[in-house]
Amino acid sequence: ETKPRTPVIWLHGLECTCCSESFIRSSHPTIEDIIFNMISLDYDDVLSAAAGHQLEDVRKKIMQEYKGKYILAVEGNASTKDDGVYCMVGGDSFLNTLKETAADAAAIIAWGACASYGCVQNADPNPTGAAPVSEIIKDKPIVNVPGCPPISEVMTGVVAHFHTFGTLPELDRMGRPKAFYNTRIHDKCYRRAFYDAGMFVRSFDDEATRKGWCLYKMGCKGPTTYNSCSKIQWNGGVSFPIGSGHPCIGCSEPNFWDKGPFYER
Ligand code: SF4
Ligand code: F3S
Questions:
Q1: Is residue 32 part of a domain?
Q2: Phi, psi dihedrals of residue 209, rounded to the nearest 5°
Q3: Do 116 and 172 meet the contact criterion of CB atoms below 8 Å apart?
Q4: Which protein residue has the closest C-alpha to ligand 2 atom 2?
Q5: Which of 243, 149, 235, 146 has the alpha carbon at shortest distance from 189?
Q6: Which residues make Cβ contacts (< 8 Å) with residue 169, sequence separation at least 6?
């Protein structure tokens, strides 16, 4: 309770803001708890009340005052073609802003499939040269929190860990926090018994769909996707894609956007 909040600069590059949408819906810890007790969200192009020069000044002030102590959270990624001209924020390329802000950060959190792996803006033929954070910043500890978006409690869990212990959580070989990405969707899926019994949905309007059988034959990527959706679920534990009757499309795996098709017959 007496610990000062960790300053956070949250940048937005090429992205859709779904990570922010997810983050603000965290239920444990709640977003209020995160904002009021754990982090000081000093700069965020989407959520900050200030804008323009005022806000850019805040970013520079935080970088100076908390040199080596602030967290850089990155939502989206940078265009690297033509000097990054395809993503301009605050009068400069996002590529430059990312490099500048990363230079004195204690650590970087790469939110979502965009910042971790590239996502749809990186899809073949990748006209803007969209590149994930780890391909641009090489000299800082980076935690990848993939998903499109990541689960809100996974996001706040990573922040809570850094605030509590002053370090990034234990990571796997792909830079993901092990605590949330160490099992496949398939390992904990409540439809697994149907998979094991060979009972599959074969059409979205068949009787097996109504009975909730396994979605593997509909292209479910659960057997090869590492994420916590089948364990902690979404919206405070309400449901997840498979719970809503849709196959997992592997949104937390590298290159899922180019590995299609999402549907198989
Ligand atoms: Fe596995 Fe997908 Fe079937 Fe669930 S629905 S058991 S994740 S293949
Ligand atoms: Fe994404 Fe699959 Fe979870 S599509 S949200 S990783 S169930």
A1: yes
A2: -65, -45
A3: no
A4: 248
A5: 243
A6: 143, 157, 158, 161, 162, 177, 178, 179
Range of the domain at 14: 6-180
How confident is the model at residue 1, as a pLDDT?
A: 67
> How buried is residue 167: exposed, middle or buried, by Cβ count under 10 Å (0-12/13-18/19+)?
exposed
pLDDT at residue 203, as a whole number: 94
Rounded mean pLDDT for each run of 10 residues along the chain, 265 residues in total: 89 97 94 94 94 94 97 98 96 97 97 98 97 98 98 96 93 97 98 98 95 96 98 94 97 94 67
Name the closest ligand to CA 22: 2
- Which one of 228, 231, 248, 263 would you pick to mutate in the ligand 1 pocket, going by the greatest count of ligand atoms within 8 A of its CB? 248
What is the Å distance from ligand 1's center to 197 Cα?
12
* Ligand 1: residue whose CA is nearest its atom 1: 186
Q: Are residues 96 and 213 in the same domain?
A: no
Q: What's the gap in Å between 29 CA and the centre of ligand 1?
A: 29
Q: Is residue 42 part of a domain?
A: yes
pLDDT at 90: 87
Q: Select from 151, 180, 209 the last residue of a domain.
A: 180
Quote the pLDDT of residue 265: 57
Distance of CA 221 from the midpoint of ligand 2 (Å): 9
Can you give the pLDDT at residue 96?
Answer: 98
**pTM above the 0.90 mark?**
yes
On whether 186 is known to bind a ligand per the annotation, the reply is yes
Whether residue 93 sits in one domain with residue 192: no
